[in-house]
Amino acid sequence: MIAWLPFEAWVSLRFMREGKVQTSFIVGGISIGVAVIVFMSALLSGLQSNFVRRALTGQAHIQVLPLKEVVRPLRDHESAWRESATVQAPLQRLKSIDQWQSAAAQIAYMPEVSVVSPAATGSALVTRGDASRAITLTGITPELYYQIVPLPEKIVRGQAHMEVDTIFIGTDLATDLGVTVGDKLRVSAANDSVNTLKVAAIFDLGNKGANSRSTFVALRTAQSLLGLTGRVSVLDITVHDVYAAEVVAQRISALTHLEADSWIKTNEQFFTAVHAQTTANTAIRFFVALSVGFGIASVLVVSVVQRSREIGIFRAMGITRGQILRIFLLQGGLLGLLGAISGSLMGGTALVLWQRFERNADGSVMFPLTLDPWLFIQALVLASLTGLIAAFAPAMRAARLDPVVAIRG
Predict the structure, then answer these.
(1) pLDDT tens for residues 148-182?
(2) What are the sequence ranges of the domains in the chain?
(3) Which residue from 333, 345, 369, 373 could staple onto 46, CB 3.0 to 4.6 Å apart?
(4) Can you name the residues that pair with 65 across neighbouring β-strands?
């Protein structure tokens, strides 16, 4: 016996050493289960983060808008109980946010909010020669908006420096109009305002529709064209936790009495798919842990049966039921821990190999994977706890054995 080892630990290690075949099989099974949990968790987490990053790369987490004008049913003067049969919806004109500076200051003060960027957005018509296209004109403050949408990273021609007389357009719009950096475009709004702007940059947002319609100008330029002098039509917001965007949006709406739409609300089907991935990952973990638990329990039940005589001798020598219980609980925990360590190494190696050899057609990484240390710590804790829980029933059976009956066999 190793002097510094407690009695229970020494007996547990002896049982595991004597049953090398059983120990090897169960540790191998646990290793495969933990490797599957580590690999699938990291893979699905990376895939989910990549989806969310791509979805949010061209939009704000939350948009604050002025409240829409609503229909007000008119009462018939002759009878207060009868409503007019004809109700006409009001014309939705371009509206601005009342006292937007105050609202932006209130929102920016919230601890969940990262950046607040004012913008003036509206429809316009861009013309070059005989060609014309309907566009969405967005006036931005570059130093704020670039923190929300990394527009400089998406520019394929030109520079991200924005002036009051320049415009950024998408690649498809540039192709349709036959223009390049340095050419001039005539931009006219619905209120008959007209301005001639120089193309300073051409960007690619990764979406044909956005590249055909989206344009960006300086905030003051858009305010002048859209008739919103000194006003804005939207506040773009990013939050620290993208999955809490809807909760933050509801708080903003209650605080400012404005309409706040989160990316979760506007991309409901996408968010449902992301949530389904999370549920699938949790289900995989649960069923793998369940199979590991049954494997450990079955091996320990066999071990109890095989060592009934030894357990009886231990009991006859004065070993308490608590010590017998701890022997098998410790054995289950050790099996889980050993399997978790080797499984974590297997899973980590598989992730490194997958990221090295699984590539896009152009040779770039399919999507980045992060080897989060917490994932391995969770796997170790989960496997060890599973081993302890699975060992409880066999350990109770061993502790309850009658020493006389056990020795007689």
Answers:
(1) 888 898 899 998 889 999 999 999 999 999 999 99
(2) 7-55+270-408, 100-257
(3) 369
(4) 259
